[in-house]
Amino acid sequence: MEVLELNNISKSYGRIQALRDLSFSVPEGSVFGVLGPNGSGKTTLLSIILDVLKADKGNFRWFGQPGSPDMRKHIGSLLETPNFYHYLSGINNLRVTQSISERGNAQDIEEVLIKVNLAERKKSRFSSYSLGMKQRLAIGAALMGNPRVLVLDEPTNGLDPVGIAEIRELIKELNKKGFTIIMASHLLDEVEKICTHVAILKKGELVTQGTVDEVLVDEDIIEISAADHADLERIMKTYPGTTMVKKEGRFYYLHFPKGAASTEKINAYCFEQGITLNHLLHKKKRLEARFFELTGN
Amino acid sequence: MKVLRTEWLKIKSYPAFWGIMIMTALSYPGINYIFWNIYKDLTQRKNQAGQIAKLLLGNPFAYPETYHTTAYFSSFFVFIPAIVVIMLVTNEYTYKTHRQNIIDGWSRDQFLMSKFFDVLLITLMVTVLYLSIAIVIGIIASPNSTVSMWSNSGYIGLFALQTFSHLSIAFLVGFVVRRSFIALGIFVFYYIIVENMIVGYSKYKLDDIGRFMPLEIADRMIPVPVFLGKMDEKAYKASLANIPQQILLTFVVIVVVWSICYFTNKKRDL
After folding, report:
1. Pairing relation of β-strands A149-153 and A277-284?
2. Could you tell me if B19 lies within 8 Å of chain A, comparing CB atoms?
3. Cα distance between residue B5 and residue A166, in whole Å
4. Do A83 and B97 touch (CB under 8 A)?
5. Sheet of strand A219-226, all strands in order from the earlier edge strand to the far edge
């Protein structure tokens, strides 16, 4: 069962195309990361599926149904910044959320406050909260009444390292219980750590999507160099198993699928071809590089 | 009912709301008290002028005129509760809670309905305040007369309608402008200066076309009190005769205002 299905969603703000023909689907029980640099359209996308913005074109379906207020009541969401009444206390803000969404009850409000570590400050005004506390209150509001689906926009934004770790643990734990979580992030590391699936956006277009293992697969890179560059290039072009060979500065870089590179074999091969390497290094490609490659930054 | 309950949760712990309502609760009786004192001052003089004044003015603060007189004076200060109305709607945009309310599961219509209830609630509070003033002043000012306490009480309804109409217009400004201080500025400037100028000017130069200005339409449901009307008896009678028409027009204003809000709300991005 698909929790969410997007079909050719497009949206523009005047002349700026924020999203272009976006289609993908979110399987039940996944932690689905929407990954992209700032300004790639992540928040616009989440705003559309939460009915805050209207798409110019295309449609989306939650559990096979078009979006509706009733559907939204069963989705816990945090969009962009924590939006609460500044003059109300944390607990009173959650009461408003509870009253509108009809998720949970008075008991749940207390439990949620404990879960996000705000029980002690529940009677303080929202305006007196730190950025991290505001973020935690927003996560608390999203969690209230245990919705089966969570939509979280940059959930660890503004949190300190401990807070970040806690929220990541919480998301994993909820996922184990069968919750589906759709999460926007510009942090590759975050997506890699907690997501099962990912869609990568660049300037409003879908670059790629799939399971995290498929999309963010690592590569092995071998860095080599020899006295005679021209010869080295010639023989390496025919070396089996490479995905890419390129020269940068004094070095040649040979790309291999993860785990397929062997420095010993390369060394032996070059030697057989009459070339002595003066440099041979096995590098693991960093995910950031992959991300930059995908998003073209 | 759920919508109303939610609004109450938002309002009941909002200090600015109660602060301004207290200001309202002080200013409405205040203005009536001032005019009542002026009246007493004029009529209690022992000299001939005092006696003539008494004869001419009658007793506008006693039953049954109290409903009319206090409604007229009280309505001067409707811009004070209007501040609350504007704050309650612009707050939603400042804090982006208008989005959150939708995300949490309200429809756009429900959001607008919640604000409609706010305006109704404040109208109700202001009307109860006015009614208490009218009754209290009426009891104190009335000689042991045989006049029924409730004759002329139709003004209660007119006052409520006028207040609702004015507050709806304030709401419209807040709803469209979305920024609290700009909206407050526009409304107060329009309420105190612009419309008064247009109405005043058109009275003599433009065939009184100012009577169709949005605030003036509702204002003319409650003509000047009897004693002021005595200055120009003919005009006063005409304004009394016009009340039914003004009531109708007021309903038109209210429908137009809320229709604009409804369609704006349907169309615009949050």
Report:
1. unpaired
2. no
3. 34
4. yes
5. A244-248, A251-257, A219-226, A277-284
Residues A249 and A134 in one domain: no
Among A73, A79, A87, whose Cβ lies nearest the Cβ of B105? A73
Instruction: Tell me the per-residue pLDDT of B226-243, one tens digit each, with 9 for 90 and over.
Output: 777 777 888 888 888 889
Containing structural domain, residue A229? 219-295
End of a domain among A188, A215, A242? Answer: A215
Question: SS3 sequence, A47-109?
Answer: HHHCCCCCCCEEEEEECCECCCHHHHHCEEEECCCCCCCCCCEHHHHHHHHHHHHCCCCHHHH
Q: pLDDT tens, A70-92?
A: 999 999 999 888 999 999 999 99
Instruction: Kindly list the residues from chain B whose CB atom is less than 8 angstroms away from the CB atom of residue A97.
Output: 100, 104
ipTM of the complex: 0.87
What amino acid occupies position B134? Answer: A
CA atoms within 13 A on the CB side of A119: 8
Could you read off the pLDDT of B9-42 as tens digits, one per residue? 999 999 999 999 999 999 999 998 998 888 888 7
- Asked if residues B221 and B164 have their Cβ atoms less than 8 Å apart, the reply is no
* CATH code of the domain containing A283: 3.30.70.100
Q: Tell me, yes or no, if A88 comes closer than 8 A to chain B by beta carbon.
A: yes
Among candidate residues B193, B233, B225, the one with its CA nearest the CA of residue B35: B225
CB contact under 8 A, A100 and B105: yes
For chain B, what are the domain ranges? Answer: 2-267
The count of C-alpha atoms lying within 13 angstroms of the C-alpha of B153, restricted to the half-sphere facing its C-beta, is 10
To test the contact with chain B by mutation, choose from A85, A101, A123 the residue with the greatest count of B C-beta atoms within 10 A, namely: A85
Q: What does the pLDDT read at residue B161? A: 96
**A56 in reach of chain B (CB within 8 A):** no
Q: Report the domain count for chain A.
A: 2
Overall average pLDDT of the A5-34 stretch = 93
Q: Are residues A9 and A74 in the same domain?
A: yes
- Say if the Cβ atoms of B2 and A99 lie within 8 Å: yes
